[in-house]
């Protein structure tokens, strides 16, 4: 059985609340799970201790059993120091789009023209 440690969504519309659960990877996101390991409330401020609560002993047990955390849960575990931090490389994400590049080129060209104009006087 392929186990995952993942989020199961709860809460009402536009008021998300998540349970961190150990579940079979074939089950639906909000469906059957084996054990509740903690909670995640994204509406709380990032520095709040109540934002992410995990039972670290049980999380470690499931990791030892071979459960794979999802990306978001892995970030929680990295922040708590349970698992080693992984490098995530997405070099194109921080790169501006084509229109933004064109605007920057136009702005640089106008600035160059403005700098040359007073020098000729």
TrEMBL record:
The record's region (Disordered) falls at 81-121
Q: Compositionally biased, Basic and acidic residues: which spans?
A: 85-110
Could you list this entry's UniProt keywords, alphabetically sorted: Ribonucleoprotein, Ribosomal protein
What GO terms in the biological process aspect are recorded for it?
translation
UniProt-recorded Gene Ontology molecular function terms: structural constituent of ribosome
* Residues annotated as transmembrane: none
**A cellular component term, taken from the record's GO annotations:** small ribosomal subunit
Low complexity bias: start-end ranges: 111-121
> What NCBIfam families would the database entry show?
S16
Q: Which family does it belong to?
A: Belongs to the bacterial ribosomal protein bS16 family.
Q: What is this protein called?
A: Small ribosomal subunit protein bS16
Species in which this protein is naturally found: Shimia abyssi
């Amino acid at each position: 059985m392929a186990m995952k440690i993942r989020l199961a969504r709860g809460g009402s519309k536009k008021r998300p609340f998540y349970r961190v659960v150990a579940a079979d990877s074939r089950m639906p996101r909000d469906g059957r799970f084996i054990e509740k390991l903690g909670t995640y409330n994204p509406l709380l401020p990032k520095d709040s201790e109540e934002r992410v609560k995990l039972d670290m002993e049980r999380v470690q047990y499931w990791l030892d059993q071979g459960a794979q955390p999802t990306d978001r849960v892995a970030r929680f575990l990295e922040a708590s120091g349970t698992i080693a931090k992984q490098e995530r490389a997405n070099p194109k994400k921080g790169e501006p789009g084509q229109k933004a590049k064109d605007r920057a080129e136009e702005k640089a060209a106008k600035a160059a023209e403005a700098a040359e104009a007073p020098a000729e006087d």
